[in-house]
Amino acid sequence: MHVCPNDLMALDKDKMKAYNRAPDMCWECYNCVKMCPNQAIEIRGYADFMPLGGVVQPMRSSDAIMWSVKFRNGELKRFRFKTRTIPEGTAVPDGGFDTGSDDLKSPLLRTEPQSTGMDDLSKL
Amino acid sequence: MTCQNFRDMGITESYETIRVKTDILILGGGMAACGAAYEATHWAKKNNLSVAMVDKASMDRSGAVAMGLSAINMYLGLKDGDNTLSDYVKYVKNDLMGVARDDLVANIGRHVDSSVHLFEKWGLPIWKDEEGKYVHEGRWQIMINGESYKSIVAEAAKKALEELGDKGQYFERVFITNPIMDGDRCTGAVGFSVREKKFYVFEANSVLDVMGGAVHVFKPKSVGEGLGRSWYPPFNSGASTYFTLKSGAEMTCQEVRFVPVRFKDAYGPVGAWFLLFKAKATNSLGEDYMETRKDELQKWLPYGNAKPTPANLRNHLMMLEVNEGKGPIYMRTEEAIQKIVDEAEDEKTAKRTLKKLEAEAWEDFLDMTISQALLWASTNVKPEETPSEIAACEPYFIGSHSGASGAWVSGPEDLAPESYHWGYPNMTTVKGLFAAGDASGASSHKFSSGSFTEGRIAGKGAAAFCVDNPDFTTISNEALEEMKKETFLPMEIFAEHGSYTEDPNVNPNFIKPQMFMFRLQKIMDEYVGGAGSSFRTSKALLDRGMTFLEFMKEDALKLAAEDTHELMRCWENIHRMWQAESHLRTILFREETRWPGYYFRTDFPEMKEDWKCFANCKWNPETKEWEMIKRDIIDLVDPEI
């Protein structure tokens, strides 16, 4: 419910269930589907141009995502893709790179020039 | 908007006013905002400054990369000598038909590889070949497993803020309505929480406008449930442009909209198909219109000879086909895959290749436009067997892609010619106000990595500004109350008039935000060259459109909101309306057609040498008048094709 970038998921307090309050403003980004701890959300594609029957359902693990794709004709395909190379929460902001200058007026940014892989910034 | 003659402010008063003071205020939560936070915090720590970031959504999945991406479209590979900085500047400028700021493009270009290397360290899976080099989709594009791209970048930005301790703050679900001004200096912003009854006042030494581009200014092609399936996200609603315009900052390239050609209806990306799989697009007769219509490119020289052909010219050739009734236009996915499979040495390799290509093709959509995978499933399409339709989308405002709209910002001291340099890197013409990503103009093709990078540049610039300008005048309580009243006016209007009718959405005393948006979209579509008008317009049509926009500006004072969610929708549409007006005025000002395929001035159908310049505009907060300005294009790189 919390993740929606367009703030569409609202809580029906009588039913104690979340719902999409404006399906026509939904980008179908699937973040609610991906994040729902109970896998309770399914998306039926935009009815004004999608024939019924297709289903695309994700299942996330800590470093990958598995997609089940069901075709209108019943055929099923599964795909698994990597999502990250290090565990969530372990990123180091500077990535092991040093910042070469403390000068606020220098064009060098945080971690540069080391993070560029060169001794200095490229010139025109 | 003003609140004259306003009586009972009960609702407005019920919102608690929260005042926040900081040195560097970052408005936005997307790639550019994360870049700004990452960089600003580093320099803040060294110089004892504070940073606050304000996001209308939630940073893990906010902004244009919310869904994920399947490629990073800006990587120069400078360390390996794959390209030079000049190559990139030349490519960008020619793709935009000669209109770009070389200094800004070069500045992002010299830093962008650093950002990509950081993303890799933070855990983003970048495809590698057998030698360990990044797999390129095209010359400037690299392939990623990008489902979690935004979460990975957000994690680093959040950690950077945490490193500042109490001096690093993050506010989520706060929608920014207006800038706070102290004369010619921007000193903050106001907004409201979309979750709690709170009115926020952020006051700062420097302000970064990184609130994304604009969608739903033009009528989309799908207007039912599919209204939300815009190519760029529907929650990018013109906040950046509104903020800089309202501050009195000079804007550039407001006419340079972007019209992407994408898989029809679900708007799946075409980059991997064109660049990685080398697919061709054909008309219904199987003709490759880039070949059969290549003579048309000669009318748009020198850019017609640029390689690759500029995005708008590729659109233009396709539109000529459609206008002649030669559609549908197809991406020949089946031919492209077959061709790659045919190159395999034996049957076993061919089978394995086919399986790999199939997974790559699906991942391309599943990583960034899941609806397109759903559309394939719903229509029983297998890309290795059946071609898919492609079509032009509606116009968007996105200075980070192949559009160019945004604020006119200062270039860096060591790269910018005198007339492009007036302050700190990426500062607008308003003191203390910085812009990056979709918010800054004339530096196209930044995409995700370049937007993050430009955010970094602006973040450091903002820190430098704070150190040099440590003091600012706090907003008066009186002025603050006025801004609060203005923010909540739509709720007061509903409270006053809502009971007049049975249907809360139909009322002679007010207009609800959804109808307001539909009216704006209809005006833009029919008079300002939307998809429904085949992207054609003229002075007569634009003048007529302006008449209707003037009515809209008056009716904006009668927008009504039942709750905080609808209040956000009201303000989003006010922001869109300003984006629309600056677009209309700049299209009217530029008396030529320079980007056929994006829009056509039917009364000035050709490109003209005397319009090889920037068309800038500015709204004056004192006089409330618009000023149109021509600015020179200065070549730092020989643009010869």
What does the model show?
The complex is a heterodimer of chains A (124) and B (641). Chain A has a domain at 9-82. In chain A, 4% of the residues lie in helices and 23% in strands. Chain A has a three-stranded antiparallel sheet. Chain A is built from one helix and five strands; from the N terminus they run ββαβββ. Chain A has one helix at 31-35; strands at 9-12, 17-20, 55-60, 64-70, 76-82. With 124 residues, chain A is mostly beta strands. The N and C termini of chain A lie far apart (48 Å). Among the domains of chain B are: 262-392, Flavocytochrome C3, Chain A, domain 1 (Alpha-Beta Complex); 485-630, Methane Monooxygenase Hydroxylase, Chain G, domain 1. Chain B has helices at 10-14, 31-47, 85-95, 102-121, 149-162, 239-247, 271-276, 289-292, 311-323, 333-342, 347-368, 370-378, 447-468, 477-497, 513-527, 539-555, 564-589; strands at 16-27, 51-55, 69-72, 142-146, 168-172, 174-182, 185-193, 198-209, 251-252, 261-263, 281-282, 329-331, 388-392, 406-407, 433-435, 536-537, 600-601, 614-619, 626-631. Chain B has 641 residues and is α/β, with parallel strands linked by helices. Helix content of chain B is 38%, strand content 15%. In chain B, strands 1, 2, 5, 6, 7, 8 and 15 form a seven-stranded mixed sheet that branches. Chain B is built from 17 helices and 19 strands. The chains are: A mainly beta (124), B alpha/beta (641). The interface between A and B is large, with 76 and 95 residues.
